[in-house]
Amino acid sequence: MKLLEDRIRKDGKIKEGNVLKVDSFLNHQMDVKLFHEIGLEFKRRFEGKEINKILTIEASGIGIACVVAEVFDVPVVFAKKTQTKNIAGEVYRTQVESFTHGRVYDIIVSKEFLGKDDKVLLIDDFLANGKALEGLSTLVQDSGAELVGAGVVIEKGFQVGGQIIRDRGIHLESLAIVESMDDKNGTIVFREQ
Ligand code: 5GP
């Protein structure tokens, strides 16, 4: 998505440890007009697919997922990161290893909001090692819902997540795929799509 790639080149900051900072428009300050264009692009890419729910993970996926859900005209649910042990049976629960914080935490979704009638599109801001999307797809599987696909705004193509998710047979759409980035000279190379 050219508009997005141009914006990443203009405002993205490359940090040590393979981290791309885009918090001026994507996941801290948020450019909602850009989010709307992102929503329309996902709608185009999943054209013809029946989707009746968007699922994301807190916190940085929520803003984008809300705008995408408005474009798809479906509800959006976010998986909560939690330390509290809810009574078994109330929630679907799995564990996710955080790329940015380097620790493992539980994520939960209430059984009230995910079930066998749902046809789910996963949405997240970044795809790095694939742990967040794997965790979300486990919750979908446990609920008996159908996983239609996953949409991420930025895939870091030099990390393993994209391969893992595609190898699982999940229809993955990434709007910008960073092939390489160099924190010394600030260059970013995108994969041709
Ligand atoms: P994964 O689970 O695929 O390893 O990492 C995805 C999650 O880690 C995303 O939800 C995102 O919040 C965070 N993340 C991964 N890489 C980056 C990055 O380069 N920049 C930012 N801002 N977040 C990232």
UniProtKB/TrEMBL annotation:
<dbReference type="InterPro" id="IPR010079">
    <property type="entry name" value="Xanthine_PRibTrfase"/>
</dbReference>
<feature type="domain" description="Phosphoribosyltransferase">
    <location>
        <begin position="43"/>
        <end position="157"/>
    </location>
</feature>
<feature type="binding site">
    <location>
        <begin position="128"/>
        <end position="132"/>
    </location>
    <ligand>
        <name>5-phospho-alpha-D-ribose 1-diphosphate</name>
    </ligand>
</feature>
<keyword id="KW-0808">Transferase</keyword>
<keyword id="KW-0328">Glycosyltransferase</keyword>
<protein>
    <recommendedName>
        <fullName>Xanthine phosphoribosyltransferase</fullName>
        <ecNumber>2.4.2.22</ecNumber>
    </recommendedName>
</protein>
<dbReference type="InterPro" id="IPR000836">
    <property type="entry name" value="PRTase_dom"/>
</dbReference>
<comment type="subunit">
    <text>Homodimer.</text>
</comment>
<dbReference type="GO" id="GO:0000310">
    <property type="term" value="F:xanthine phosphoribosyltransferase activity"/>
</dbReference>
<dbReference type="InterPro" id="IPR050118">
    <property type="entry name" value="Pur/Pyrimidine_PRTase"/>
</dbReference>
<comment type="pathway">
    <text>Purine metabolism; XMP biosynthesis via salvage pathway; XMP from xanthine: step 1/1.</text>
</comment>
<dbReference type="InterPro" id="IPR029057">
    <property type="entry name" value="PRTase-like"/>
</dbReference>
<keyword id="KW-0660">Purine salvage</keyword>
<feature type="binding site">
    <location>
        <position position="156"/>
    </location>
    <ligand>
        <name>xanthine</name>
    </ligand>
</feature>
<comment type="function">
    <text>Converts the preformed base xanthine, a product of nucleic acid breakdown, to xanthosine 5'-monophosphate (XMP), so it can be reused for RNA or DNA synthesis.</text>
</comment>
<dbReference type="Pfam" id="PF00156">
    <property type="entry name" value="Pribosyltran"/>
</dbReference>
<keyword id="KW-0963">Cytoplasm</keyword>
<comment type="similarity">
    <text>Belongs to the purine/pyrimidine phosphoribosyltransferase family. Xpt subfamily.</text>
</comment>
<feature type="binding site">
    <location>
        <position position="27"/>
    </location>
    <ligand>
        <name>xanthine</name>
    </ligand>
</feature>
<feature type="binding site">
    <location>
        <position position="20"/>
    </location>
    <ligand>
        <name>xanthine</name>
    </ligand>
</feature>
